[in-house]
Design a protein that fits this description.
It is built from 17 helices and 8 strands. It has a 5-stranded antiparallel beta sheet, with helices on both faces. It is α+β, with helices and mostly antiparallel strands. It starts with a helix and ends with a helix. α10 packs antiparallel against α16.
Amino acid sequence: MNFEELLETRDKRQTTKMRMPYGFFYKRLIDGKYSNFVEFHDEVADHISFGKFVRSEAEAMENIRDRHQLHFKPNEGDDGVYAIAVEVGHFISFAQLINENPAVVAKKNFIDDTIRDLCTLTEELNSHDIFHVCFAPDNVLARKVDNTVRLLCHGSYYQKLEQDVLWEGDEKFVAPEVLNGGKIDARCDVYSLGRFLAWLYESAGLPLELKSVVAKATDEDPSKRYPSVTDFYKAIVTRQVLRRSVITGIAAVIIALSIVGAYFYMLPSPDDVEFVKPVEEPIPDDLMDDDPTLFGLGADLDSAAIDSIVRMRTQQNDSVRVDDRKMREYQAKAEQIFRKQFQREADAILSKIYNKDKMNLSEKDFMVRSKSVTEELAKKEAELAKAANLGNEKSQRIASEIIDQLTTKKMKELDKDYLGIRKKQAEEDKKTTNTTEKK
């Protein structure tokens, strides 16, 4: 075989054909360049108006500029349109993509991006009364270089063909009313997209938050489905955001509990102390106002000052010791001062992690910062307890109560609507109500 014959043979060679509902998609090398073609099935192309359908769709697609829509030109012969020439690129069906590389579904954002792009393009098509009808794995294409989704021919242009023949083998992905000769509209696309979404998750299992979305989208009764692809996609996003919010909320609670737990783990074991009977009478609220010795010293009186007052009282009363009741009163006042001082310090320390900026950190960074905060809280508690002359057991108990109260308060302040769950649910319920009222 000479060089010219080799070139001629190469130009005539066809690559493996890929079956689609309308025909066989294949690549042909012509004049050194690969071109994409769809050669229509005879049972499809034999319809008397088929050429008209193809030309009408090719013309309409010129106005769809979304990059996920493939464009084409009809190839006509003596018997009319027999094939279409598709724009340049290496495309395979999703059925072939998943078959060759099953792990692609586990790639980060692959499924989310695929559904987003499909829904965005379908929303635009629906706005022009164009409906894809069948999102079967062999009727949705992917660009080989990056696995991004592409659509070619749309079912609403071929609704006058025998639908059971056109969609043979793909009936699962076609709404029941289409196969029964019923109306083709946006709800048909919602049904098929729901089936395609479930198919994508076949190997890994459909996430719990999406099961109700798929169930509603694929309801046998069109009136019970989402009325539009826009509503279908919003439901997907809402459920996913809700799931992430719940997980974030649970994580925040766990982290909060871990701070309190780690706090006590890091502290030294409490000293054994003799049980002291509680004060039988309440401490007067006006203790500091009525006592001229304490007047002017302020609420943050420290243990040294209290000790000085005790000694002064001892000298004034010419007694070897201060009355036991008075000592308990002073001890209670020291506890009160410790509580106030530690609450102020703990509030400032916890604010370093419980704010909108820090809660958006990665889990690893957040935990590192939480450990630092725990250490700082323990150090501050020890300092203030020593200054107030409080035992470890009592100061740790008070500190625990304060940390727990402040943590709960700050979490609520970050999201007063329980991490947005009630708000998102209320918005969804409102949208559903508005849609029902419009009907």
